[in-house]
Write the structure tokens for this entry.
Amino acid sequence: MKPFSSMGRIQRVRREIRQREVEVARIEQLGSGFLKITFKGEALTDFTSDSFDDHIKFMFDNHAGESVRRDYTPRQFDCNKGELTIEFALHGDGEACNWARSAKIGQRAVIGGPRGSMIIPMDYDWHLLLGDASALPAIHRRLEELPTTAQAIVIVQLANRDDQRSFDSRAQVTTQWVETPAQLLSAVRQLPLPAGDGFVWFGGDAALAADVRRLVIEEKHVAKEATKISAYWKHGTKDFHEPREH
Ligand SMILES: Cc1cc2nc3c(=O)[nH]c(=O)nc-3n(C[C@H](O)[C@H](O)[C@H](O)COP(=O)(O)OP(=O)(O)OC[C@H]3O[C@@H](n4cnc5c(N)ncnc54)[C@H](O)[C@@H]3O)c2cc1C
């Protein structure tokens, strides 16, 4: 692990990029909108991921024989068992989510990375975690990792109520589920931010990310360094990639 710079209190870490061959070990439906797929493979015995919002490249060949690569959160991993779990949001028509829909036990894929991590400290006075379905795996992982002393406020936008879940967390967590992006913005606008130093994290649709960034920084006066607001996908664009800051 090589620390290479810091931005505010976020520690950035870079790793050698590695590709690992994996195969599907288990498939579990979560609500109607998610498939939780656990992969196994010898190559996963030294897999590591330092931050809840890391991403791996999930790679497979489509029916035309073209290589498809998409970003996914390493939701859970167990090096002893050589296992890695990804939660695929079933958003409609995308090659990766369709791959997940038709996945069978034993089916092969390749994962690359994570090539780096941005480690957000756990000791902020409060953590505001915002996102849509694509960010729910990262938010859930963060809640599992936060210590008992942490205070987390979670607002998640999900179109389907049956995708709501309870979180396993030692932290003090308050959760609000909303159905539309407008409701998420309204919930954030109305939220009185707790006292002390906090951190605001968002993952989800690019248009919503832009609105959340404006709202949090300009209206709620949170310092930019105390935010990490990422576009995970963009309406009408396949394989969207947000320009990276580094
Ligand atoms: C750091 C990071 C972590 C991520 N982690 C996860 C994760 O753990 N689980 C997860 O499900 N996704 C995650 N995503 C989002 C995922 O990479 C995208 O949703 C990706 O586009 C899905 O690929 P696809 O082939 O299914 O759809 P694409 O072929 O990329 O897109 C096809 C169409 O579907 C639309 N679309 C794509 N994603 C969504 C969506 N989520 N909701 C609605 N419409 C969509 C596009 O606008 C496009 O019109 C993450 C993204 C990033 C950057």
User: Anything to note?
Assistant: The longest strand covers residues 19-30. The radius of gyration is 18 Å. DSSP finds four helices and 15 strands in the chain. Residues 2-117 form a domain with the Elongation Factor Tu (Ef-tu); domain 3 fold (CATH 2.40.30.10).
